[in-house]
Design goal:
By secondary structure, the chain is an all-beta fold. It is built from no helices and eleven strands. The strands form two sheets. Strands 2, 4, 5, 6, 9, 10 and 11 form a seven-stranded mixed sheet that branches. A four-stranded antiparallel sheet has the order 1-3-8-7, with no helix packed on it.
Length: 114
C-alpha cells in the first residue's frame, strides 16, 4: 500500500513563495507518475502539476510560469515550488501517485492572504 505524506503548506502573503514536499512509501518500485492536485472550497479537485509516466511534466494553465514541479534525490519524492502566489491559489494541496491504482496524501493547506 503506497502512502503519501505532504508537508510545507502554510499562510503566505500575495506575491510570496512556498515549497511543498511529498514522500511516497510502502513500495519498492520507482513511481514515475507523481504530482500535485488542489481543491478550493466549493470547487472540484484540479490538477496543478505532475510528472507523467513517460517522464514529461504537465501544468495547469493558471500556474504556468509560477510553479515548478521537481523530483528529489531520494526515491519517490516530489516537490512543488510555488512563486508569486495569488489569493486564487488558496486551497488544500494533495500529492498524487499512480502505481496501478491512484493514491492520495492527506493534503496540506495553502492560504494566500494579506
Amino acid at each position: 500500500q503506497v502512502q503519501l505524506v505532504e508537508s510545507g503548506g502554510g499562510l503566505v502573503q500575495p506575491g510570496g513563495s512556498l515549497r511543498l514536499s511529498c514522500v511516497a512509501s510502502g513500495t519498492s518500485f520507482s513511481i514515475n507518475s507523481m504530482g500535485w492536485f488542489r481543491q478550493a472550497p466549493g470547487k472540484q479537485r484540479e490538477l496543478v502539476a505532475r510528472f507523467t509516466s513517460g517522464g514529461s511534466t504537465t501544468y495547469a494553465d493558471s500556474v504556468k510560469g509560477r510553479f515548478t514541479i521537481s523530483r528529489g534525490n531520494a526515491k519517490n519524492t516530489v516537490y512543488l515550488q510555488m512563486n508569486n502566489l495569488e489569493p486564487d491559489d488558496t486551497a488544500v494541496y494533495y500529492c498524487n501517485a499512480v502505481l496501478g491504482d491512484w493514491y492520495w496524501g492527506q493534503g496540506t493547506q495553502v492560504t494566500v492572504s494579506s
